[in-house]
Amino acid sequence: MAVTPDSTAVGSSASPPGPQQIGDTPEMPTTPGRAAVPHRTHSRWGDTIFKSLAIAAGATIIAAIALMALFLLVKAIPSLQANQANFITSTEFVTNDAANLRFGIRDLLQVTVLSSMFALVIAVPIAIGIAAFLTNYAPKRLARPFAMLVDLLAAVPSIVFGLWGIFVLAPWLTPVATFLNNNLGWFFLFADGNVSLAGGGTIFTAGIVLAVMILPIITSVTREVFALTPRGHVEAAQALGATKWEVVRMTVFPYGRSGMIAASMLGLGRALGETIAILIILRTAAQAGHWSLFDGGYTFASKIASAAAEFSAPLPTGAYIAAGFVLFALTFVVNALARAAAGGRVSGG
User: Fold this and answer.
1) Least crowded by CB within 10 Å, which of 61, 87, 133, 326?
2) How many CB atoms lie within 10 A of CB 145?
3) Would you call 103 helix, strand, or coil by DSSP?
4) Cβ atoms < 10 Å from Cβ of 286
5) 120 near 267, Cβ under 8 Å?
6) CB 78 within 8 A of CB 318
7) Residue ranges of the domains in the chain?
8) Has this prediction a pTM greater than 0.85?
9) pLDDT digits (tens, 9 = 90+) for 184-237
10) Which residue intervals of 16-86 are DSSP H helices?
């Protein structure tokens, strides 16, 4: 049979392209005139310089802390070697005679810890309440001026707080202190102290003054943390029918837990190092004796400030430097523990 040209053309014609088979790699269209961007293997000079400056800044803080600790330790060692009393358990602090140094930190540690913790117990609940009120309850026209008023407390000098505490607050607190001593004297915190309650120069008065002094610090930090609570969390609680207090309790407080701990530790650090106000209030030289809020005495900072005139001979000066080293270590440990606690709570949810 002869093959016609028409049939030959039909049989040899190419079939239309079918769908692309699986596994075929299509060619990506290229844009004319645009070259491929090469992969960056090195940081820019600006990033490198900034990274180096940031590392140097962090290392500077670490080096400064290490150098301070080293300085205090080196200056304190000769006096500790010449000390004729137990540095940890002794209640004496006699540095008049360089040949007969007798000093210990038991009373200093007791008054420092007791006054600071008493202030923290008073200030933290009040500060958290103020922060919750300003961020969740107060109208905006009231929240801003009220927050500024609380922050202004941080600008009051320490000596003003001390004078106010001993001449104004102490007489008001005398009836309260007498009532607590008469009715709760069986408890060691309210037992008879070594100073007269009528004078007001007690740890009880000093702790309340410290609470007022650290209140703006704790309030400010806590307020900023509460204000950062995700709006979605708040709206979710409201959608479930939660009341205002339940919203604060279930969303604001858990989210700001680490911030509250950090704020409290900042306030505690401020209380541990307070000097002039405590020196004015705890003006008596009576020893602490026992863990009572109605004792007198000195804190680490006030003891060092009260003996500034004796910083002429190396050995007596070293005795106070040794006390300062203990205060430095105490503050460092407290802040480290607080940091660990805050980090653990955040990671644990």
Assistant:
1) 61
2) 10
3) strand
4) 17
5) yes
6) yes
7) 65-104+307-349, 108-303
8) no
9) 888 888 887 767 777 778 899 999 999 999 999 999 999 999 998 888 888 888
10) 45-82
